[in-house]
Specification:
homodimer; 273 residues; alpha/beta; 44% helix; 15% strand
């Protein structure tokens, strides 16, 4: 999917919401456990209920891999279901991979060729040759971890060089030499507030994938205030607040309502712009 | 597996060799492609031929995941085969994971509980709460990326703080507060030469997992010279140089011979000690 298509989807739907499919068998409504593939049954219902209100889905691979073969099958089915029924949705494999060149190339092949997702989250620690193999696919995206929303982000991401550049800033600056805003996005946590301004100084044009709204404490308003650019430039993710809004057989309707609430907030922000 | 058991295995086998199971359908002997599970058939033959000469195996998850369901099945079978037939081998899932707490916990559950590997490689970028969930399993290990052997390791790992501390050194120092040498190891690339001395100043007692011998240019002698400690403290990995030593039906014998050659070099180094 091109940058322009993402921007058009955001305009048309008045939403920059990404729904995180962190599907956990321990948390889904118990009545689904009798289904042949409970994870996929849950995802399918959530997708059908929330698709009008979002522009992207982000299945987190850890939640699928922890169920081994069955989990992987559910992940594949979920991607295919989205591709077939909601071709305008941007599909992010939240994998946080990052390995030496030939290994990153294997991951790129698995996720871009075999599964046809639109984007993969990548960890920057191993540097350029760990990221570049993901950039060999036109129309596919790398979403690089920059400044995350968890407490441990203080440990290394905020480390400051002798020249006063923090590690996350160096990641933004260096990786800007590897790909432009048409193929790279960055993860910046919603709880970051003013730090979005520091991010935008280095990458004014890029899209940011912003987790941490809802359960983790960030708000769409604050993200919008400090993080948006002229093209919106934001994909704000919510996982638990939407998909586990309710655990009764009515869960899908509740998830749709939660997504709609966020979409309405986003539409109001876009309207002010 | 405890640190003491690893040390005893190294003494008994006079080897600190880890065999990397980076199994690629494009590189395995063509006659195996008619097998029901070519990846597992290859791994089984390689394991049977090399087990006398090594103390650890390191399947790289990327190589399995890129084949989706079939790849994941081959990975599971490989781990089970090792567990059942070679219980003294240390099994490292080379996954390079690292995510927020609840996601890391899912990976830990998948790899330590469902699959029962001994160790997981973890990327440090997201900090303490991305690593800690892997430390909740007694007898299981975290192997944290510190200083890798690829060219991109220069991009961020060598970044120097105002106080003159490089990022990889901060990773070593900080993570030393999360777990001791009985539960944590570090990845340090074999091509690092004198940098091993800098590593050892901060983590004198920890085991180091050292990739980059052979195809990537590092030598066991240099790693031993600069990286060993009183307990050996090294697991030196070789992948391609062993498992693709030959592509004829004689491949397993050739792999065994390549492993034996490295083991003999290691035995000579241990004897000098």
């Amino acid at each position: 999917m091109t940058r322009q298509e993402i921007i058009e989807n955001i305009r048309r739907k008045q939403s920059f919401l990404c729904v995180g499919l962190d599907t956990d068998l321990k948390k889904i409504p118990p009545h689904l456990l009798t289904e042949e593939d409970p994870i996929f049954a849950f995802n399918k219902a959530i997708i059908d209920a929330t698709a009008p209100y979002c522009v992207a889905y982000k299945p987190n691979l850890a939640f699928y891999e922890c169920f081994g073969l069955k989990g992987w099958a559910a992940f594949e089915k979920t991607v295919k279901y989205l591709r077939t029924n909601y071709p305008d949705q941007f599909i992010i494999a939240d994998a946080k991979r990052g390995d030496i060149g030939n290994t990153s190339a294997m991951y790129a092949r698995a996720l871009f060729e075999e599964l046809d997702v639109d984007a993969i989250t990548v960890a920057p620690y191993m540097g350029e040759d760990s990221v570049k193999p993901f950039l060999n696919y036109p129309g596919k995206w790398v979403i690089l971890l920059a400044l995350t929303s968890n407490p441990g982000s203080q440990d290394f991401q905020m480390m400051e060089s002798g020249e006063g550049e923090r590690l996350f800033e160096r990641v933004l600056r260096r990786s800007g030499e590897w790909a432009d805003a048409g193929q790279m996005m960055y993860v910046v946590g919603a709880t970051r507030g003013r730090a979005f301004e520091d991010v935008r100084r280095i990458v004014p044009n890029h899209f940011l994938l912003v987790p941490g709204v809802g359960a983790q404490g960030g708000s769409p308003e604050e993200v919008w205030r400090y993080g948006r650019n002229a093209d919106c430039g934001l994909l704000v993710n919510s996982s638990r607040g939407i998909i586990y809004a309710d655990s009764t057989p009515d869960f899908a309707r509740a998830a749709g309502a939660a997504a709609q609430t966020l979409q309405a907030q986003m539409a109001a922000l876009i309207a002010q712009h």
